[in-house]
UniProtKB/TrEMBL annotation:
MF-aspect GO terms: acyl-CoA oxidase activity; ATP binding; FAD binding; fatty acid binding
InterPro entries the UniProt entry points to: ACOX_C_alpha1, Acyl-CoA_ox_N, Acyl-CoA_Oxase/DH_mid-dom, Acyl-CoA_Oxase/DH_mid-dom_sf, Acyl-CoA_oxidase, Acyl-CoA_oxidase_C, AcylCo_DH-like_C, AcylCoA_DH/ox_N_sf
Domain named Acyl-CoA oxidase/dehydrogenase middle: residues: 67-176
Biological source species: Acrobeloides nanus
The Acyl-coenzyme A oxidase N-terminal domain, residue ranges: 20-64
Lineage: Eukaryota, Metazoa, Ecdysozoa, Nematoda, Chromadorea
CC per GO annotation: peroxisome
Name of the protein this chain belongs to: Acyl-coenzyme A oxidase
Pathway assigned in UniProt: Lipid metabolism; peroxisomal fatty acid beta-oxidation
Active site: 352 (proton acceptor)
Family: Belongs to the acyl-CoA oxidase family.
Keyword field: ATP-binding, FAD, Fatty acid metabolism, Flavoprotein, Lipid metabolism, Nucleotide-binding, Oxidoreductase, Peroxisome
Amino acids binding FAD: 70, 109
GO BP term, pick one: fatty acid beta-oxidation using acyl-CoA oxidase
C-alpha cells in the first residue's frame, strides 16, 4: 500500500476524543484542557491571522495549552481577577503580572506539569485605562527543555477530591513580556499605538466557558447512564430476601424501592442526553451566527447553558449516589466504579461556574422576561421562554384521560415556572419600592430566584424529552422509551409537588395520581431494564466496575479483584512483626506476668 492509513488522525477532533477517552479513562488526561477549552478559544476568539498560525499547531499537538482564568482569590467574580496585562506601545508588548498572592492562577487543568502554553485571562490595561478581563495566548515553558520561562512560576496544586490524573496547576507572572498579537483579537483589539477597540458584545471572550457548560449536559447524561447501567446489572444479579415467603430469594431489582431508586436516574440520564444534544446544536448555531455578525442569541444561549449545567450536574450528583447506595456494601468498594464516577461527576457542580451562581445567571434572564410580561409586552418567538408569556389552565389537569403527548403535565411544569418567576419578580420590585437597592433585593430573593431557574429548566428538559420521543418512528423502541418518559415526567411532578400544591394548582388527589403513574412505569420498565442498559453498549472498560460487568460474572471477579490488591501480595505484611505483631506479642507477654 502506498499510504498506510494512520491508526488515529490526531487533527480529527472526534477521533482524538474517542482515542483519548478509551486509552486514558474518564478522570482526565494531559490534553483535556487543550482540546476542550484552548482550541475552542482559538476557534472563537482568535482573528483569522492568529487562527492560521495557532490552530494547525494546536490540532497537530505541537504544543499543549490550558485555560488559565481562575485565581486563588477569585473564580466566580471575573471582574475582580487581579492578573494584569499592561500594554507597552514602545515595544508593542503586554506585560503580564501577578501583583498579589491571591492573583496566582489556581486550578487550570494540565497547567501543573503538561502545558507549555495557556490562554490567560488578565485585566487589560492600555493608555492608563482598565478594560476588564481579556484572553491572551501565552507561552509558559520552553519548547525544548519544558522548563518555565523567565518570570514564570508554575506547578501542580496537589491531590484533589478526584480527577487526580489531571495536573491542575498554579501560575504566577513576574512582569513577563508577551507580543501585542498574543492578545486574542477576534472581538476586542489593542492597536499598535495602544488604542483599545471594544468587542460588539463584551462577553464573547467567555465563549469557551459557554461551550463546556453546554458539553457538561451530555457529560452528566453519560455519568448517569453509566452508573445506572452498573446499578441495574448488579441488581439483576444480586439476590437477597424473599417477596413471597418460601418462593426463594429474589433479584433485588424486583423490589419496588430498588426500581424507584435506580430507574429515575436512567430516565434523567436520557432526558439530559436529549437536552444535551439540543444545547450543543444551539451553541454551534450561535457561534456561526456570531461569525456572521449576529449576536442576538448570545443571552439566550448563556441563560440556558448556565441553568442546564447547574441542574444536570446537581441531579447527576444525587443520582450517582442513589446508584451507589442501591448496590449495598459492594457499592462502597472501589470495585463498583462508583468512587471514580462520582468524584469525576461532582467536579462539574463547581467548575465552569459554581452551580448557585449559574442558577442566578439564568434567573437574571428570567427576571428580564418577567419585566416584559408585567409591562404587557408580547413574546418574541423564542421557543425556550415564550411559554412564560402565556396564560395556562387555571387548574392542573394531569389526571385527565385525554392528556395527549403529556400536554397537561408540561403545562403543570410551565405553570410552576411562570408562577415562581413572576412571584419572585414582584417581590424584587416590592423590596425596591420599600427602599432596598436592586442588589440587596436580589440577595433577599436569591433562594426563590434559584427555584425559578430550576422550574424553568425542568420545563425545558421535560418538553425536549416529550418532543424527541414523539419523533421516533420505530414503535417498539418508542414504546420502551415512552415508559421511561412516563416515569420521568411523573417523577418530576412529585419532585416539585410542593410548588404545585402550594397555590392550590394541583390537588392532593392529583399528586396521588402522579405517584400511581410512577409505580405503573416502574413495573413496565422492570422487564426491559437490563436490555435498556445493554443497548447503551458501554464497554466494560468504560464502566470500570466489577459489579456492572456485561457478562454478569460478579462474584467470581470480585474475589479476583480483591486478591489482586497489593495488600494480598503476601500473606503476612513485611512490617507486621515490627508493629501490630509486636504489639500483640508484648500484650500477651504482659498478661502472662
Ligand atoms: C465522558 C464523560 C465526561 C463528562 C465531562 C463533561 C464534559 C466536560 C468536558 C470537559 C471537562 C473540562 C474540565 C473542566 C475544566 C474547567 C474549567 C473551568 O472551570 S474554567 C473557569 C470557569 N469559570 C467560571 O465559570 C466563572 C464563573 N463566572 C462567570 O462566568 C461570570 O463572572 C458571571 C458569574 C457569569 C458574571 O459575569 P460578569 O462577571 O461579567 O458580570 P455580570 O455583571 O454579572 O454580567 C454582565 C452581563 O453579562 C452576562 N454574561 C455573563 N457571562 C456571559 C456569557 N458567557 N455569555 C453571555 N452573557 C454573559 C450576564 O448575564 C450579565 O447580563 P445582564 O443580566 O446584565 O444582561
Ligand atoms: C475540578 C476543577 C477543575 C477546574 N479547572 C479549571 C480550569 O481548567 N481553569 C480555570 O480557570 N479554572 C478551573 N477551575 C476553577 C473553577 O472554575 C472555579 O473553582 C469555579 O468557577 C468556582 O469558583 P470559586 O472557586 O471562586 O468559588 P467561590 O465563588 O469562591 O464559591 C464559594 C461559594 O460562594 C458562593 N458564591 C460566590 N459568588 C456568589 C454570588 N455572586 N452569589 C451567590 N453565591 C455566591 C458559591 O455559590 C459557593 O457556594 C476548576 C475547578 C475544579 C474544581
Amino acid at each position: 500500500m502506498e499510504h498506510a492509513p494512520k491508526a488515529i488522525d490526531v487533527t480529527n477532533d472526534v477521533e482524538m476524543r474517542t482515542f483519548n477517552f478509551f486509552t486514558m479513562g474518564i478522570d482526565g488526561h494531559p490534553l483535556g484542557l487543550h482540546l476542550d477549552m484552548a482550541i475552542p478559544t482559538i476557534l472563537n476568539n482568535a482573528d483569522e491571522e492568529q487562527q492560521k498560525d495557532w490552530l494547525p499547531k494546536a490540532a497537530n499537538r505541537e504544543f499543549i495549552a490550558t485555560y488559565a482564568q481562575t485565581e486563588m482569590g477569585h473564580g466566580t467574580n471575573l471582574k475582580k481577577l487581579e492578573t494584569t496585562a499592561t500594554y507597552d506601545p514602545k515595544t508593542q508588548e503586554f506585560v503580564l503580572n501577578s501583583p498579589t498572592i491571591t492573583s496566582t492562577k489556581w486550578w487550570p487543568g494540565n497547567l501543573g506539569k503538561s502545558s507549555n502554553y495557556a490562554v490567560v485571562m488578565a485585566q487589560l490595561y492600555t493608555q492608563g485605562k482598565c478594560h476588564g478581563a481579556h484572553p491572551f495566548f501565552v507561552q509558559l515553558r520552553d519548547l525544548n527543555t519544558h522548563k518555565p520561562l523567565k518570570g514564570i512560576t508554575v506547578g501542580d496544586i496537589g491531590p484533589k477530591f478526584g480527577m487526580n490524573t489531571v495536573d491542575n496547576g498554579f501560575l504566577q507572572f513576574d512582569h513577563v513580556r508577551t507580543p501585542r498579537r498574543s492578545m486574542f483579537m477576534k472581538h476586542a483589539k489593542v492597536l499598535p499605538d495602544g488604542r483599545y477597540v471594544p468587542p460588539v458584545h463584551d462577553k464573547l471572550n467567555y465563549s469557551a466557558m459557554v461551550f463546556i457548560r453546554a458539553a457538561i449536559v451530555s457529560g452528566m447524561a453519560y455519568h448517569l447512564l453509566v452508573t445506572s447501567t452498573i446499578a441495574v446489572r448488579y441488581s439483576a444479579i444480586r439476590r437477597q430476601g424473599e417477596i413471597t415467603p418460601g418462593a426463594g430469594e429474589v433479584k433485588v431489582l424486583d423490589y419496588q424501592t430498588q426500581q424507584h431508586r435506580i430507574f429515575p436516574q436512567l430516565a434523567r440520564g436520557l432526558a439530559f442526553r436529549l437536552s444535551g444534544q439540543y444545547i450543543m446544536k444551539l451553541y454551534t448555531q450561535t457561534m456561526d451566527d456570531i461569525r456572521n455578525g449576529d449576536i442576538s442569541a448570545v443571552p439566550d444561549l448563556h441563560a440556558l447553558s448556565c441553568g442546564l449545567k447547574a441542574v444536570t450536574t446537581h441531579h447527576a450528583a444525587l443520582g450517582l449516589e442513589q446508584c451507589r447506595m442501591a448496590c449495598g456494601g459492594h457499592g462502597y468498594s472501589q470495585a463498583s466504579g462508583f468512587p471514580l464516577h462520582y468524584s469525576v461527576a461532582v467536579g462539574a457542580c463547581t467548575y465552569e461556574g459554581e452551580n448557585m451562581v449559574m442558577l442566578l445567571q439564568t434567573a437574571r434572564h428570567l427576571m428580564k422576561i418577567a419585566k416584559a410580561i408585567r409591562a404587557g409586552q408580547s413574546p418574541k418567538s423564542n421557543k425556550i421562554v415564550d411559554y412564560l408569556f402565556h396564560k395556562g389552565p387555571p387548574k392542573c389537569l394531569i389526571d385527565q384521560a385525554y392528556d395527549t403527548n403529556y400536554r397537561n403535565v408540561l403545562e403543570s411544569f410551565e405553570h410552576l415556572a411562570r408562577r415562581q418567576t413572576l412571584e419572585v419578580y414582584d417581590k424584587l420590585v416590592q423590596l425596591q419600592q420599600q427602599g432596598r437597592n436592586y442588589e440587596q433585593a436580589w440577595n433577599d430573593c436569591a433562594v426563590e430566584l434559584c427555584k425559578a431557574t430550576r422550574a424553568h429548566v425542568r420545563t425545558f428538559l421535560a418538553r425536549t424529552f416529550v418532543e424527541e420521543i414523539d419523533k421516533i418512528s420505530d414503535l417498539s423502541i418508542k414504546s420502551v422509551l415512552q415508559d421511561l418518559l412516563q416515569l420521568y415526567l411523573y417523577y418530576e411532578v412529585t419532585e416539585c409537588a410542593t410548588g404545585l400544591l402550594e397555590d392550590g394548582f394541583m390537588t392532593g388527589q392529583q399528586h396521588k395520581y402522579a405517584k400511581k403513574k410512577i409505580y405503573e412505569a416502574l413495573e413496565k420498565i422492570r422487564p426491559n431494564a437490563v436490555s435498556i442498559v445493554d443497548s447503551f453498549d458501554f464497554q466494560d472498560r468504560e464502566l470500570h466496575s466489577v459489579l456492572g460487568r456485561r457478562d454478569g460474572n460478579v462474584y467470581e471477579n470480585l474475589l479476583k479483584w480483591a486478591q489482586s490488591s497489593p495488600l494480598n501480595k503476601t500473606d503476612v505484611l513485611p512490617f507486621h512483626h515490627k508493629y501490630l505483631g509486636k504489639m500483640m506479642e508484648e500484650a500477651r507477654q504482659r498478661s502472662k506476668i
